C-alpha cells in the first residue's frame, strides 16, 4: 500500500520538499533550496521532485502560511481554491503568492494526484474570543482578528510532548516556544491552543531574527510621516531588516554567529541576544497566565532545538514560574534538557513540520 506524501513548505526565501511515509513517519527523499520559491532554481527543483514522485504519491500537501477565514482547517484543493487563495495574498504577501503558483504548477504536472492545503493557522482555530479579538472598532473587527501561526510546528511539538510525558495530548498543559527565523509562543491547555503571541500576521508578536514583532502603532505613524520612507519601504524594513539583524546593526540574524561574537566581546551582539531572550521570556510568562498548571516548557524551531545559550537565558528569566535554568546542551533526540525530577521539565523537540503536514493532509482526504 502506498503511504507516501509529498510535502511543500514554501518560505519567503526558501523551498523545502519532502517525501514522507505516513505509516513509519520517515522522510525518504528531501530537496531544500535557499532561494525564493518562485525563483528559477527553486522551480526547477520543484519540477524535478514532482516529476520523480508526483504520480506515485498519495497527495501533495502544501503548507499555507495564512489560512484566514477561508481555510480554518486542512482542505483538499478544488476549482475554487485559487480564487480563495488570491484573497489571502494581502495577509501574507511573502508567502501566499508562492503557494498559489506551486498549487497551479502541481495541478499541471501531476493532475491525478490530490492536493491539500494545510494552514499554519489551523492549530489555533480553538482560540477563545478573549484571545482572538482585537480591541478595535466593530467596523474593523470583521476583517482584523488574531489568528496565530506556526501551527504545524505546535501540533508536532504537542504530539511529541504527549509521547515523552506518557500522557494523552488532551490532558497536557504546556508552554511551547517556536524559535526559528519566525518566533512565537503558544499556551496549550488540555491539548488545545488557547493563546499565542502572533496575531493578525506573522510580523506580530515577539521579536524575531529579521522581523520586528510588535511595535507601538504610533511609531509606525511617526515613521510614515517623518522618516522619508514610503509604506513599502517601512514594511520591508520591519519584515527583513529588524529583529536580531537590526539590533546587531546588520552583523547577523544567526544566533550561532551572535553567540560566538558576544563571547568574543562584541557588545552589540550581546545586546541583541539579551533583548531577543527577554522577548521570548516575556512571551512565555504572558502565555502562562492562561494556564493553571504547566506540565512542560517546550522549545522547538531551529533555534529552540539547537541553541542552548538561548534556552538557558530564557529559562533563567522564568525563575518566578519555577522553570529550571540549569539545562544541558543539545540532544540527539527529543527529550528533556532539565535535570531528572525537575518540574516543570524543559523539553526540546526537533521541528518536523513536514511529517505533520503529511499527516494532516492524509487525514483531510
Poorly predicted spans: none
Shape: globular
Largest sheet: 6 strands, mixed
- Structural class estimated from helices and strands: alpha/beta
What is the helix/strand order?
EEEHEEHHEHHHEEEHHHHHEHHEEH
CATH topology descriptor of the largest domain = Nucleotidyltransferase, domain 5
Could you explain how this protein is built, in words?
The chain has 365 residues and is α/β, with parallel strands linked by helices. The chain has two domains: 4-119, Nucleotidyltransferase, domain 5, CATH 3.30.420; 167-353, Nucleotidyltransferase, domain 5, CATH 3.30.420. The chain has 14 helices and twelve strands. Helix 1 (40-53) packs across helix 3 (96-109) and helix 11 (267-288) crosses helix 13 (308-316). One of its GO terms (molecular function) is acetate kinase activity. It is found in: Cytoplasm. Pathway: Metabolic intermediate biosynthesis; acetyl-CoA biosynthesis; acetyl-CoA from acetate: step 1/2.
Amino acid at each position: 500500500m502506498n503511504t507516501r506524501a509529498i510535502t511543500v513548505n514554501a518560505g519567503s526565501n526558501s523551498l523545502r520538499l519532502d517525501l514522507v511515509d505516513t505509516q513509519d513517519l520517515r522522510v525518504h527523499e528531501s530537496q531544500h533550496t535557499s532561494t525564493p520559491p518562485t525563483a528559477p532554481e527553486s522551480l526547477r527543483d520543484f519540477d524535478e521532485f514532482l516529476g520523480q514522485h508526483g504520480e506515485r504519491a498519495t497527495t501533495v500537501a502544501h503548507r499555507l502560511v495564512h489560512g484566514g477565514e477561508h481555510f480554518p482547517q486542512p482542505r483538499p484543493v478544488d476549482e475554487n481554491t485559487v480564487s480563495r487563495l488570491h484573497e489571502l495574498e494581502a495577509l501574507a504577501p511573502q508567502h501566499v503568492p508562492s503557494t498559489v503558483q506551486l498549487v497551479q504548477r502541481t495541478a499541471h504536472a501531476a493532475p491525478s494526484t490530490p492536493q491539500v492545503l494545510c494552514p499554519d493557522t489551523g492549530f489555533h482555530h480553538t482560540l477563545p474570543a478573549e484571545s482572538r479579538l482585537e480591541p478595535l472598532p466593530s467596523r474593523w473587527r470583521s476583517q482584523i482578528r488574531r489568528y496565530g501561526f506556526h501551527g504545524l510546528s505546535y501540533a508536532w511539538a504537542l504530539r511529541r510532548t504527549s509521547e515523552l510525558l506518557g500522557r494523552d495530548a488532551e490532558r497536557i498543559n504546556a508552554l511551547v516556544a517556536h524559535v526559528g527565523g519566525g518566533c512565537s509562543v503558544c499556551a496549550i491547555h488540555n491539548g488545545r491552543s488557547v493563546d499565542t503571541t502572533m496575531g493578525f500576521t506573522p510580523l506580530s508578536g515577539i521579536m524575531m531574527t529579521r522581523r520586528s514583532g510588535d511595535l507601538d502603532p504610533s511609531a509606525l505613524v511617526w515613521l510614515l510621516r517623518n522618516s522619508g520612507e514610503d509604506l513599502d519601504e517601512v514594511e520591508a524594513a520591519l519584515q527583513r531588516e529588524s529583529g536580531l539583524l537590526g539590533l546587531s546593526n546588520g552583523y547577523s540574524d544567526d544566533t550561532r554567529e551572535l553567540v560566538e561574537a558576544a563571547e568574543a566581546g562584541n557588545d552589540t551582539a550581546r545586546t541583541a541576544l539579551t533583548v531577543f531572550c527577554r522577548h521570548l521570556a516575556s512571551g512565555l510568562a504572558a502565555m502562562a497566565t492562561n494556564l493553571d498548571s504547566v506540565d512542560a516548557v517546550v522549545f522547538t524551531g531551529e533555534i529552540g532545538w539547537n541553541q542552548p545559550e538561548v534556552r538557558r537565558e530564557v529559562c533563567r528569566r522564568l525563575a518566578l514560574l519555577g522553570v529550571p535554568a540549569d539545562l544541558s546542551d543539545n540532544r540527539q533526540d527529543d527529550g528533556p534538557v532539565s535535570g531528572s525530577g525537575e518540574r516543570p521539565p524543559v523539553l526540546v523537540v526537533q521541528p518536523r513540520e513536514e511529517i505533520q503536514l503529511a499527516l494532516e493532509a492524509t487525514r483531510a482526504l
